[in-house]
Write a structure and sequence with these properties.
By secondary structure, this protein is an all-alpha fold. It contains 19 helices and no strands. It has helices at about 1-5, 10-15, 25-30, 35-45, 50-55, 65-70, 75-80, 90-95, 100-110, 115-120, 125-135, 140-145, 150-160, 165-170, 180-185, 190-200, 205-210, 220-225, 230-244.
């Protein structure tokens, strides 16, 4: 342990210690910010989960080691990769090829993705991944594509993106899917006239969420207080009582 923590220990000695029998020693090595790349590459295949978790949290971990960790058997290691400061385009490409849907979704929810990665995620086979991208992308062209995605989960994700314009919120508020119209209500971005129109929405669920959402104005609640469905009416009247 003393040698593993000594800043003067030569790199070749540190690399040799990757095979140390003590996992406590290997964990200390994995945490070193000045660890040689050869040591970090060796530790990427370490049998100790905690060692690999420490390794993936080390800012000095190089991109090729991160690529190797994309296939780690444990999610706690893989899911740290999108936020790693050394995760470059090659790491992103490896994540896009991964069979781990949650890992791809976490990458899709990252800001500042390069154009190639964003385009690959926009074509991802999982609607959950595309929905995460729709909610978080800072690429207007990618967002425009995802707003018209065939899966309502993806279109609903677009309602949560700060780049979604008022005009596009209006389109999402008349979407054929009640789930998307509900998400549009929950965005808090719809203008007053759209909220008034949604008081006549054919979906009870949309009207109930409109009555329940904290930013719904009182004038809209008053309309919903006379809704023919008892659940909507009760929710709206309860909100009005709380506001008085």
């Amino acid at each position: 342990m003393a040698v593993a923590g000594d800043p003067t220990t030569p790199p070749e000695i540190l690399e040799a210690m990757a095979a140390d029998s003590s996992r406590t020693v290997r964990r200390a090595l994995a945490a070193r910010s000045d660890a040689p790349d050869g040591l970090l590459r060796a530790l990427a295949g370490d049998p100790d989960l905690k060692t690999r978790q420490i390794l993936v949290e080390n800012p000095a971990c190089p991109p090729d080691v991160l690529v190797a960790l994309v296939e780690d058997p444990y999610g706690s290691v893989r899911w740290s990769l999108p936020d790693h400061p050394a995760a470059d385009v090659e790491v992103h490409r490896a994540i896009c090829r991964s069979t781990d849907e949650d890992l791809r979704r976490l990458l899709a929810e990252s800001r500042g993705l390069d154009e190639e990665t964003s385009a690959a995620l926009a074509r991802d086979r999982s609607p959950n991944v595309r929905a995460g991208l729709a909610a978080h992308t800072d690429d207007p062209a990618i967002l425009a594509t995802l707003i018209t995605d065939a899966d309502p989960k993806v279109r609903a994700g677009a309602t949560q993106n700060p780049l979604t314009t008022i005009d596009r919120h209006r389109l999402l508020a008349i979407d054929r899917s009640a789930a998307v119209r509900t998400a549009a209500v929950q965005s808090g971005k719809l203008p007053h006239d759209e909220l008034q129109r949604l008081t006549r929405d054919r979906s009870v669920n949309v009207r109930w969420w409109l009555a329940a959402w904290p930013t719904t104005p009182e004038a809209v609640l008053q309309v919903l207080a006379e809704d023919p469905h008892p659940d909507v009416m009760t929710q709206a009247r309860g909100r009005l009582r709380k506001n008085t």
